[in-house]
Amino acid sequence: MSIALRLVLHLPRDAATVPLVRRLLDQALRTLGVADGCRDDVGLILTEACANVIEHALEIDDYEIVIEVSGERCVLHVVNAGSLVDASLLAPVSPAPAGPAADAEMPGEPVLDEHGRGLHIIRSLADELYLTPSLTGGLLLQAVISLRWTADAEVWQRH
């Protein structure tokens, strides 16, 4: 039987919670034997998702994070219960152009400003990303990440 982890956190919408939850997740993944680079990616995804809640969900006082690790994957759920979100606003945005053309506006290719880069970072690191209106209002971000293990973790992954 492999080990499964489910961690549920209810946090105040405060920037001080972001490094706290990132360290907590990193330590749990380290204990299970997740490889360093993979832990860094999962931590960055969580950081960006939490930062989005803190910056954009101004009408709420707290938010929830659910972290599930089972088998070969980690699923992060970040939920804010703010105002109902219009699902049409959740369409994917094309990435910014690279190279010299990045300074010129290209038809059909939006150039990213400071806001919105967090979701592009999450999309680039996660295997799957879902942004859906939460049943209680607000937004549910769900990111699925395939885990990479250290050699020492093999004992945890035996069935």
Can you describe this structure?
The chain is an alpha+beta fold and 159 residues long. Strands 1-2-3-5-4 form a five-stranded antiparallel β-sheet, with helices on one face. Helices cover 31% and strands 25% of the residues. A hairpin with a 2-residue loop joins strand 2 and strand 3 (73-80). The radius of gyration is 17 Å and the shape is globular. The protein has one domain (5-92, 115-157): Heat Shock Protein 90 (2-Layer Sandwich), CATH 3.30.565.10. The chain is built from four helices and five strands, in the order E-H-H-E-E-H-E-E-H. It has helices spanning 17-32, 36-56, 117-125, 154-157; strands at 5-12, 62-70, 73-80, 128-133, 139-146. The longest helix has 21 residues, at 36-56.
In short, what is this structure?
By secondary structure, the chain is α+β, with helices and mostly antiparallel strands. The protein has one domain (5-92, 115-157): Heat Shock Protein 90.
Strand order within the widest beta sheet: 1-2-3-5-4
Largest sheet: 5 strands, antiparallel
Order of helices and strands: EHHEEHEEH
What is the averaged pLDDT score? 80
CATH class: Alpha Beta
CATH T-level fold name: Heat Shock Protein 90
Instruction: Please identify which CATH superfamily we are dealing with.
Output: Histidine kinase-like ATPase, C-terminal domain
The stretches of 5 or more residues where confidence is low (pLDDT under 50) are 93-113
Q: If you compute it from the alpha carbons, what radius of gyration comes out, rounded to the nearest whole angstrom? A: 17 Å
Would you count the extended β strands for me?
Answer: 5
- Number of structural units classed as domains: 1
The CATH architecture is 2-Layer Sandwich
Structural category is alpha+beta
Q: Which percent band covers the strand fraction?
A: 15-25%
Indicate the overall shape: globular
